[in-house]
Structures
1.
Amino acid sequence: MTKEEFTNALKAAVGGTEYGDEIIADLTAHFDETGKYAQTAKDRLDERIATLKGWEKKHAAEGNADAAAAEAAKVAIAEKALAAIE
């Protein structure tokens, strides 16, 4: 997959939202032309998802439903990005 194909796949999956565009920028900035782009992207997304889920859990435990929902929405976007590159 070329960097352009990679970027287009991500744009189709999560483009058009502020957080989706942030993910696209991050993953394309770290695109590895040697063929390791998918593993690098998956690792970055796995870390991002784990962090977001941690914040979601923390906000929920503190009773801040709005903040927890915002984190859950980000998790959903990150998971869509992950599915697009697998």
Note: The chain has four helices and no strands.
2.
Amino acid sequence: MAKLIGAPPGYEGFEAGGILTNSVRKKPVGVYLFDEIEKAHPDVYNIFLQILSDGRLTDNIGRTVDFSEIVIIMTSNIGQTYYLDEELSDEEARELATAELNKTYRSELLNRFNGRENILHFRRLAQEVIERIIRREIDKLNNSYQAKGLEIQVADECISHFCVRGARGLPGYIKANIRPIVVNYILENPNAEGIFHAHYHTDKKVFEVSFSKK
């Protein structure tokens, strides 16, 4: 909480103010995203209550900061498991997720979102959508190495098996596990041209990459 509004008197950094309040003071118009707010300390919700109720916030030095032109977006993974349960319909998942949301957050906080009308639920992505996301990431890698005469090939079947895990974290997995193999090969073989064949093993749940020269 001290990072948002500043450290209390007597603590190091007291004169600096808070990250949030200083940012809004400098730029009073903007969009602020607070991701996965369920991980925040409970005291942080008291700050949000003040912002959402009064449209302003007082920092540790006593300066009042105007939030009237600030759009605040919060995300939460509360109820995510219900949307990943294929046996539940979207309506059933929404009902269960809402019940869990009500147990997790105080009513006075939830009601600040336009009487809860601005609380939105996101449905799970269809399999074909997830596959398009992964294919896009692979295409991005190919665009980076095409000028070097290199290409990454992944069969559609491998992408389908890979995407069964769901969308979360998959684009990052591609960057963290396939890209380093390509980069290291280029460093060791700067003049090589050819194709990287990435095959996904469903039992090991990993990609194995082999290289063939043109």
Note: The CA atoms of residues 143 and 172 lie 17 Å apart.
3.
Amino acid sequence: MFCKNCGNQIDPNAAVCVKCGVGAGQGFNFCPNCGANTVPNAAVCVKCGVPLHSTPAAGNKSKLTAGLLGIFLGGLGVHNFYLGRTGIGIAQIAVTLITCGAGAIWGFIEGILILCGKIDKDAKGNLLTD
């Protein structure tokens, strides 16, 4: 696997490129598959044919649904379960129970952040749809 920013070969399990520090899968200067130089607006690599930009897949989660679940049921972590973040959802339930309901503000704030676009991906890294 190659860094899309600098073209350096990186470990497939690495979170960032050790050469340039860009997060894995970010940047558009090099093909992530073969490391060839790419044109920033190209849809596929001309050398190996791999898609360069991730496109929203069918079945992506809705930003509106996740945000409203966070605002109204955030204390129960429902929005995080919806987005596939089971661990955080369980933590929100625990915090809400331990604080006798005061921890629900955490979910409320996350719901607002989702609707504002500050939280824009599900657990798999797919962008939330509008």
Note: Helices lie at 63-73, 78-82, 86-98, 104-116.
4.
Amino acid sequence: MRSGFSIREAMDILEDEHNRACFEHIRMRLGSGDRAEDVISEVFSKTAYGSYLSGFLKVLPLKKALGLSVRMSSGNEEMKKQLVSEMVYPLAMFLILLCGSLLFSELCLPALLSMLGGFTDDLSSWKVTAILIRTVSMSMLGMLAGGMILMLVCTRRRWICRAYCLISEKHFLPLLSESVSARFILFFAQCAEMDLPTRQSLEVMAQMEDHPLICMLAREMDEALRSGTAFDEAMHSRHLDPSLYRFMRIAVNTDGAKEMMKSYLAMSEERMKRRLKRLSRLIRTVSYAGCGVLLIIVYQILMMPMNVLTQF
């Protein structure tokens, strides 16, 4: 369609056995007089592009709305893959360690202590160790469960904006603020690549109802610009990464907003990688250390009978 083909011509070129049924449905709907925007929005409603397309069609023609939806969906997926690839393995390892420690303290350790009772009467220190392992494991699992529940509540559409505003204003979790700022600039840069004016870009982003944080930030910035605030000052929001303001000040003075947004995204990506790697390394270190402690405890218990026998 960017090359000037109509919807029907584009479908004739792209049609194959996998999409033939879908294209036939679109042709039938278009033939019956339905608007192309309504048909395409319905077809893509259950895809990754649907969360963007329905809102974009309110302010953009079909060709630009489709292109922008593809760009934003691809960029968002890349950011998600980076987060998942860095954090899934260490978090899974830590969770397995906690569950294993709890099972060890509840099932294995009592049996080992019962066996050890035949060789010595002084088991007070080992009982304290068992209670300590159980307490720490249950506490950490409780904290993880509570954190997951809190995250699920805070990420609901009704609460996500309030939760993020509170976190960003109190400067908790800077990684979260940087991640949201990077997504905001990513989407803003995609609009700029489509040659949309700043005001229209903000209107487009304000239609992203399935992405409440981006929608909120776009509306805040649009209100600031309408009140006469300069572009770089409008970026100086308490809900955005402070370093973004410095980038935008340079952009205004050099008339290179697109290049500065790309530079900020590159810097943000590298900074996020470093922080995720540091966090991942910390979680892995704690997990390995926990496994080592459990192995040492088992070894000491198993060696206790031999130590008692060597005393005779």
Note: The chain is about 80% helix and 0% strand.
